[in-house]
Fold:
Amino acid sequence: MSTDRIKVLCRVRPSKGEDAFAWSDRRVHCLAGKEKERSGFLFQKVITPDQGNNKAYNEVKDAVEGVLGGYNATVLAYGHTSAGKTHTMLGTPDEPGVILRSVDYLIDSKSTANITLKISYFEIYLERVFDLLSNDKRELDVTTATDGSTDVVIPGLTVHNISTLSEGIGLISRGQDNRRKARTNLNEHSSRSHTIFQIDIVRADPSGHTVKGQLRLVDLAGSENSKHAGTSGEAMREGANINKSLLALTNVIFSLASKSSHTPYRDAKLTRILQNSLGGNARTRIICCVSPSRQHMDETLQTLHFSDRARVVFNSVKVNEIDGTKTIPLETVSELLAVYQDEISSAHAREKELRSEFKASLHDVVRHMAKEHDAEAFLWCEADYVSQKVSRQSSEDACSAMRLQHERVERDRSKYLDTIRRLESENKKLRKENTLKTTRIDELAIVIQDFEEQTKLLNSEPVASSQRLEEQNQILTAQCISMQADLKTSLSGASLMDPCINALRNKLSGLKRVHSEMCNDMKLGEGVSGGPAATGKKQVKKIKIFEDAVQEAVSSSASVKENIATARQVTSSAKSVVRNPSPLKGPATPKGKLLLTPRSKAKAVIAQVRTNTPKTPLRKPLTASATLNATPPGARTKSPLVQKKRKKLVERPLEFQYP
Structure:
């Protein structure tokens, strides 16, 4: 018994539209979807659209030829509806398929060997088995063989012996006429059942050795989508049963590929009948028929995934011998023994020759070494022999050490397994915790989303606030402009006051000189009543009044300068507020107090300056002559001497004005 791997082929039918797949000699690549990143689906061979049924048959011919040697074989066409399965297996009169080519090959072999061919043809329809070569349409049972083997048999199935190709063609045509077919949107002659064309071969050698083989050629119905196929009623029921049996076939392949302890062969009649072909005693070849068009992309991917699993399945094959038919004549046995004895004696003689040749060559080598290196060569050989002996001993010691190490590794392995189990339990706990954390994260995500929505609403409010800021900035700008005008007026008034004050000071000094002269005159005319003394006292009073006016002007000038400096500070602060407006919401204020923003603070300073700035009234022009010449009521007239001296001092009137 030997193992044989299931050979999986891919046949690509001609495209009907935009292609979603590309192919090479052994790979099929998907050009769209999630499978785009994959390196491709591997096959033993890819049959391209320009290659016909002859290429497909040549790829499975080895299994057909093996049937004559006593092996079982199965050729299975798999794929979705309208993918080209029936065309591959049956073909056309101009291009025969695998079934007709296999029958032709086996019939041609009858001329060179003693071969018996028996044909049977049946279908699986709605999970029931029907004979396609019988007029009786009753359902057949599927049972296990009674000879103790695991083979599955169908009692009541008709068997037809054939000897010519025309007989085989007639049986194939008859079976196809009885097969159930229907018209759908995807295929005008859609197969509604799975068909199995079975050929039983018995071959006898001239020596009396007889072997048997069974060839099954399976044409599966294609998986279909009722929505795409446009089926309903009975056709939809047929499609559901087809998909069910194909799913069972996929499950069996998956179980065999994963080396599961149980394989569900009994889930469907198809897998029950093909039990020997899937993981059993048969050489199996699967032809996966696919369509490269984008329209059938999902169905094609399903077929490619099925092939990926099927190509790693192995079958256990053996030659099927018929017991009780192996009778060899005595003369033949004696002849065979004589032949075997001659072969054995010749083998012994050849062995002796080889041994003598080896010894002679070894002696030649030793003589050559002795001639070249003399005694040193022999010593070197002896030393080499000793070293080899020591190395062999060390190797044995190393092997024993490795055994001990292996035992330690086994002990560590058991410990590691315990650790792995413990870690797995901890991992389960962590997964539960992660699940709880994930739910918590989802809740937080919802909270964050609500917060972002509120933030968007808050961000929309500053639009109206910015408009109010613009209006306030315009008001402050107008106020700054008016303050600058007031400041210019104040500066112009201050510049006019300075020369007036200097003139008053000069006039005061002149009056003081007049006063001193008048005092001297008063001393001269003290005895005269109503003379210069009285006049001098009056002049002193006027001089004091004039001094008070000068001091008032000086103090007014100082206060004006202070107001100008304050106005400058307020103007600079107002400009900074206009250039850098503060936000509407200021920092939190203490309870009972109002914390002003720079804008409101500027407004308060401007109001305070306006209230605290004294408004100096404009006075009438004051002349020195009017002041000096003013005579209080009831006073006496001045002496001519005094009036003369005053005229000298008041030659030019001095006019000044308070701001």
About this structure: The radius of gyration is 63 Å. Residues 127 and 548 are 135 Å apart (CA to CA). The longest strand covers residues 114-125.
